[in-house]
Amino acid sequence: MSSTSRPRADRTPGPAARAVATAALVACLVSGCGTADGHGAASGPDPTGGPSDVPTALPSFDPSSAVGDYAQGFPTGLLGAPKKATVLASSALPAEDGLVEVSLNLATNQSARKVMASYARRLDEAGFAEADEVPASGLAARSVFTRTRDTKKAAVETVLIGVLDDGERRLVSLSGTVAADGPTDGS
């Protein structure tokens, strides 16, 4: 060997090179890298900055829920939002014994006290009883209401309401199991 030639290096990749190659392969497989002819290419924006040929799919929602409105079958007569409130999302899923599992999320500028008074009045008129004091656990207000319907099989309805005060507005979360929309007088 002359002084200008170097010994031939071992061409076996070291642990670091193998780890990088394995990570690149896994990333390519997970992200759906395609072939040179474009088959199997992942959807999303074109890396050149142009529009993508494949639209990005939006998430689908459960048919029993709605965003910005009341879900089909939601008992608005009993649990509709107070005046000047914005419905963020709701759901209404039929359950056993003519009941429906509901949830409602809304935003309002009304005080927590006014929101709770509005629901308490409506639920009281419908025959619900408010549970004894419920710890608010970080909420501005929280309450639980129950009603037992006299049917062949007694059905207990429950409504839980929580109000979070973020300073500018109140975020109200309501959930429970109640009779399908109809008479609200407990019958």
UniProtKB/TrEMBL annotation:
Q: Which UniProt keywords apply?
A: Signal
Q: Where is the signal peptide?
A: 1-36
Q: Where is this region: Disordered?
A: 37-62
> What is the designated name of this protein?
LytR cell envelope-related transcriptional attenuator
Q: Which organism is it from?
A: Isoptericola sediminis
